[in-house]
Amino acid sequence: xxxxxxxxxxxxxxxxxxxxxxxxxxxxxxxxxxxxxxxxxxxxxxxxxxxxxxxxxxxxxxxxxxxxxxxxxxxxxxxxxxxxxxxxxxxxxxxxxxxxxxxxxxxxxxxxxxxxxxxxxxxxxxxxxxxxxxxxxxxxxxxxxxxxxxxxxxxxxxxxxxxxxxxxxxxxxxxxxxxxxxxxxxxxxxxxxxxxxxxxxxxxxxxxxxxxxxxxxxxxxxxxxxxxxxxxxxxxxxxxxxxxxxxxxxxxxxxxxxxxxxxxxxxxxxxxxxxxxxxxxxxxxxxxxxxxxxxxxxxxxxxxxxxxxxxxxxxxxxxxxxxxxxxxxxxxxxxxxxxxxxxxxxxxxxxxxxxxxxxxxxxxxxxxxxxxxxxxxxxxxxxxxxxxxxxxxxxxxxxxxxxxxxxxxxxxxxxxxxxxxxxxxxxxxxxxxxxxxxxxxxxxxxxxxxxxxxxxxxxxxxxxxxxxxxxxxxxxxxxxxxxxxxxxxxxxxxxxxxxxxxxxxxxxxxxxxxxxx
Amino acid sequence: xxxxxxxxxxxxxxxxxxxxxxxxxxxxxxxxxxxxxxxxxxxxxxxxxxxxxxxxxxxxxxxxxxxxxxxxxxxxxxxxxxxxxxxxxxxxxxxxxxxxxxxxxxxxxxxxxxxxxxxxxxxxxxxxxxxxxxxxxxxxxxxxxxxxxxxxxxxxxxxxxxxxxxxxxxxxxxxxxxxxxxxxxxxxxxxxxxxxxxxxxxxxxxxxxxxxxxxxxxxxxxxxxxxxxxxxxxxxxxxxxxxxxxxxxxxxxxxxxxxxxxxxxxxxxxxxxxxxxxxxxxxxxxxxxxxxxxxxxxxxxxxxxxxxxxxxxxxxxxxxxxxxxxxxxxxxxxxxxxxxxxxxxxxxxxxxxxxxxxxxxxxxxxxxxxxxxxxxxxxxxxxxxxxxxxxxxxxxxxxxxxxxxxxxxxxxxxxxxxxxxxxxxxxxxxxxxxxxxxxxxxxxxxxxxxxxxxxxxxxxxxxxxxxxxxxxxxxxxxxxxxxxxxxxxxxxxxxxx
Lengths: 517, 497
Ligand SMILES: Nc1ncnc2c1ncn2[C@@H]1O[C@H](COP(=O)(O)OP(=O)(O)O)[C@@H](O)[C@H]1O
Fold this sequence. Notes:
With 517 residues, chain A is mainly alpha-helical. Chain A is built from 22 helices and four strands. In chain A, β3 (235-236) and β4 (239-240) form a beta hairpin.
């Protein structure tokens, strides 16, 4: 029989520390001890072994302390009694007058209080506040608003408005008022009011002649005008309430409404060609707007350039090399942000006449420059140019050459070109960049062009098809250049394909439209 | 503690179950179920079998499986026609049969009935009487079918295009109210297709033998008019009523429609090779076979299948000699008049003379009709035929759009809901969309329909189910007390117009 002490011995635990421990525990758990002592009697042989192994280290919390006698299953049933259950409860709805009792399921036990609470959905039972009137009111106040309306019909209209909460589409759809005889032949008004129903039956044919069916505008007109009059007459302490409402009601103009609908109708019945024309006009207008905006921006930039630079800061801080790079970097970022701004409005593609003046100027300048450069080249006929031409040989390179020459060539370049042949330059890997180069050291392969993600994925796909990997194994200058060119071509082809697809789809659509019409 | 946590059912959707029963009688099938469920618990054909035994006593059968077998002295009768109940005794029997299986207790379960917008005054009266007096339901409500469809799609304002068995109806719904007088429709719906399929088979000299008459069969392929099916008939030693045959054919047609038909966008695609000519040159890849109960496989070329389905759009242009039996009269969409509930206005109470307005108005409407028709047909195919041209699906929708108040038009055009089982024909929605877009270049047309077949078939029921489980709806039920106090007349005028 192994005891806890055996284990402690094996583990080399000091007896004293053990006792200390035990004493502390004892104080704390006196009650537990007693309880567990009682219990220990019942523990069977196997369990006793286990309990002994536990030794003096009693579990700090007696898990079954609260309900020592309850079995697991009992506790489950206990839980059920605590949890609220769902009960089918009868309820009445306060917005009903007949006290209909329906049953719904309510969480919790049947509670008598519950049924006295108002039904929760009652509050949604709202109705519009439409003024009411009596026949006397009508005769006194409202008769002259629209002479062709009778009291009865107005009342009918108000009933309908109330029933359908002013949903005009529904009201006009179910508006089935047919006038009595006296409403049309005004003179007979006083005679035999009581049995006018019967009378009018006899006079059916007469009525059909004079009564014209109402339009929505008629109904609206009558309702709004009558309401406004009624509200106006309801004075409390000499002050008319709802002034704003009355104003709104009075602003209804039947003719304007009819006109509005006419316009709307015409708008909806435009022919496809008209719509297309309109759209193209809108696009043109937008283009002009954009161009104007761009011009303004360019002018602002020009003005900014002309502003003299601020030079209040001491120059000392830029004298060190780090200061200088910092200055360079800040200038660069400023430059970049400026550039981005100017590019924001996309230059619209227009006919030659629509190009903003500044652009035209730029174009002219470019043409002039080119012409100049051409002259220069012819005059120069220099050895460098000749050599380069001899090397490349094809027209494209000539063009490049031209481009290069356009720029003022640096001294170094001239010097180098006079000393080295192009072949040598290539061997040494010397290269001159036409455009600005980012400061610092970088890898050539980093500079390979990338496109928008959508385009890029397609380009990569095509490259994969061609069996060319995106990562160049030998990124020499020539390879990178070729690769760049390839990428550009693929991108432009992809773009072309997209455009043709789009246009083709449009063409088929147009064809179908033509065919159907 | 109990009282604080006692709340009604989850309020997120404003739902409050009262165990209402929803009943949706359609011209093809009738569905019932408890409100709040997402599909009906029971769907029965809208027919019943009537068996007369030796003593002359009638017994009604409703179970689907009984109806598709034969029995002595059984006749099968329709309960509804044109979405309106015509046989109330049969209907009540059938409903009670279903309710019994569902364990409905009328005393504390309200009943919601969906009804056609063209339901007659008499029918509404009868419904109130049957359910509140006879069957003793504690409360009852009749809701318009298009309203239900709108609810099922979560739209308050929309244009509901229901393509069912007997009828196509187009109903504008504004804020949940059907504009009843704007409803138009035709009978070029499921049954119209059935008849065409029937004639198609007759042209091929094929007889449809109902399932219950077939004992055993061998699969055969139809090649020409002499092809005969190989099967053994089951013999019954009593006479089987014709209506039983007709009823089981409905099922065959339904399967045929489900599997074979498909609309096409282009009319060119449906050039049908002449049926009489030799069909040797028919491309067999473009054929689909449908196996009849007796084992005979009928070939449908794509063109034929398209043509039949497209007849929903152009009812005048059908296979064969261009005549569909039972549909000879061109139907121009004035459905209210056709069904004969036009006079059945609800304002009886208000003005006894309501009829005085009718003739004049109808005259006007007819004028308008023909104008619109002429315009529409002019727009559609350039031929200026007026009136005699039957009204296809697109034209129906277009006519409603033309007539509706301009303020609602764009919204309705943007919320066209296509429902009803016949709308399950592939490409139907697409074609409707394309044609409408071309007719209305300045409006944004959007067609919606649920992709789920069950939801499409039972969208009316589902809408009713949603409605009847809303907490805010419970104030609308018509209770027995109300019925007794107010009377059917006023109730119908005020509530069930
Ligand atoms: N998948 C389907 N494809 C085409 N038609 C179908 C399909 N399923 C059912 N139908 C047809 O739809 C019609 C029933 O439509 P339904 O909307 O239930 O009518 P109703 O509302 O009038 O009862 C029947 O003619 C039936 O044959």
